[in-house]
Every structure is written in C-alpha cells, then in structure tokens.
Amino acid sequence: MSNPEQLRYSKEHEWLSPVEDGVATVGITEYAANALGDVVFVQLPEVGATVTAGEPCGELESTKSVSDLYAPVSGEVTETNQDVVDDPALVNSAPFQGGWLFKVRLDTSAGEPADLLSADEYAAFTSE
User: pTM for the complete prediction?
Assistant: First the structure.
C-alpha cells in the first residue's frame, strides 16, 4: 500500500491534499477503504457547511459496517464529489484519485493542522 507523499493524513484515516488558494481536497486512505470493504453508500457534508477538525461530517456505509467520516481540518465545504455519491465503489477503486470526497476552504483562524501525519508517519501508524 502506497500513501502519496504530498498528502497529509489523519489518525481517523482521512487524507488532505496540499492547500491551493485556501482550499484542500479530502478523501479516505487506501488503508481505510480496504478495512471498510466494498463501500455501497456515501453521505457527504453539504456544500456551504462548516466542518470542524476531528469531528464527524458524513458517513461511509460498506457491506461490513457504517463508519463516520471525520473532517481532518476546520473550514467551509466548497465542493462535494457527486461521482462518488453516484458510484461509491470509487472510494475503493481510486481512493486517492476519483474517490476523493469533498473540498474544504480552510479556516485560517484555526491555524495549521498540527496533528496531521506525513506519509511515512501514517504508514508507521497503520502498521502498529
């Protein structure tokens, strides 16, 4: 399993893309997608909603269970991936590409997210 180096990772198994113009993309990791099994339903936060780092903001339902989706950062949701709502299997088949979940404009007053992991740190975390 390979975690893209340019991403940052949460201990809840979400990834965050580099911030461009104040906006970052959020998805779940390949590790989480594999642990969930076949994803059959995705509930994402509404565009315009405010999400809070470490708090649930949606759900992923698989053939095995229902899991909360956590926001890795605080901010306003600017876009959701309708493709993944229409075809939840994208979460499993392309978690770092077409299976992204939503985009968020970071709340700059919250500061830089300090508890996000590098790819190497996340790999060490998931191998425990």
Answer: 0.93
